[in-house]
Design brief:
The chain is α+β, with helices and mostly antiparallel strands. Helices cover 58% and strands 13% of the residues.
């Protein structure tokens, strides 16, 4: 009878043990706290994280790409046009070449211009090309294309639509990462659950998904740091690409690091507390 009362008291104590409040996902212990949190909290934090990472991407495009586009469009001739799928009205090449982006309009191919930008976009007489370190792709202009490609037309158009383009880009980035953070954990939350089981930790299937999803936070801050480092030329494009690949590895490994901070199963705690008790 006394043993039964002791067991009941022990179980009552275990049930009354307060849960850790899940508020920060930047350490393994903080990620582990989300295993007993709510889905609403995880999704809300992912929304905030999506807004933040979208802002970083838009900042990069606005400060590193948009000035190049403006310089290029202001250098176009006033008589430039694309008529029946062919570019005309250029007396000399127009180039805006910078570290991150290079734009070139060279219809007559009369001059070869060497550029070293990470992304290069080229407009020739009947085709356009885009590429970089991985190579180039080209596409002929449709024969039904007829529009002005001049400074007086293109520059004002860009000035009017640049905020809209950046806004659409921000939405695309947000949707991409949010779906990534929600769907990708579905592919590996079961291994997280299995590792938790093998480690004798208290972890449900839903808790494993929450840990896997919220691990996007520390991984994404690494990506944002890499974007800033790339923007300030502290790392080149190759190193930036390697960091992006490491992002997924970080995303996958971080929940496993958090497992050791989970509570042990009550049965394991009881055995360790009374190893010789029958």
């Amino acid at each position: 009878m006394a043993e039964k009362e002791e067991t009941t008291a022990g179980n009552s104590t275990a049930l009354e043990k307060p849960k850790r409040f899940a508020w920060q996902p930047f350490t393994p212990r903080g990620v582990a706290a989300f295993s007993t949190g709510t889905f609403d909290r995880v999704l809300f934090l992912l929304i905030l994280l999506g807004i933040l990472i979208s802002g970083v991407f838009v900042w990069f495009v606005k400060t590193r790409y948009c000035p190049v586009v403006v310089e290029f469009l202001n250098g176009l001739p006033e008589s430039g046009a694309v008529t029946n799928g062919a570019m005309s009205g250029f007396t000399q090449p127009v180039v805006s070449d910078h570290r991150f982006l290079s734009l070139l309009a060279n219809p007559d191919l009369g001059e070869v211009i060497n550029r070293t930008a990470d992304i290069q976009i080229e407009f020739y007489k009947q085709e356009g090309q885009a590429g970089g370190l991985a190579g180039f792709i080209s596409q002929d202009y449709p024969t039904n294309w007829n529009f002005a490609f001049s400074r007086t037309t293109a520059a004002p158009w860009w000035g009017a639509w640049e905020p809209v383009i950046l806004g659409v880009f921000a939405v695309i980035v947000f949707i991409f990462f949010y779906l990534l953070w929600v769907i990708l954990p579905l592919l590996y939350f079961l291994p997280v659950r299995i590792f938790g089981y093998l480690a004798d930790r208290s972890l449900t299937v839903g808790g494993a998904w929450r840990m896997a999803a919220i691990s996007a936070a520390p991984a994404s801050f690494c990506i944002m740091g890499a974007i800033v480092a790339y923007a300030w030329q502290w790392v080149d494009l190759i190193k930036f690409g390697l960091i992006c690949v490491g992002y997924f590895a970080f995303f996958l490994i971080y929940p496993l690091l958090a497992i050791r901070h989970l509570e042990k199963l009550p049965e394991v705690q009881k055995i360790k507390a009374n190893p010789f008790k029958s």
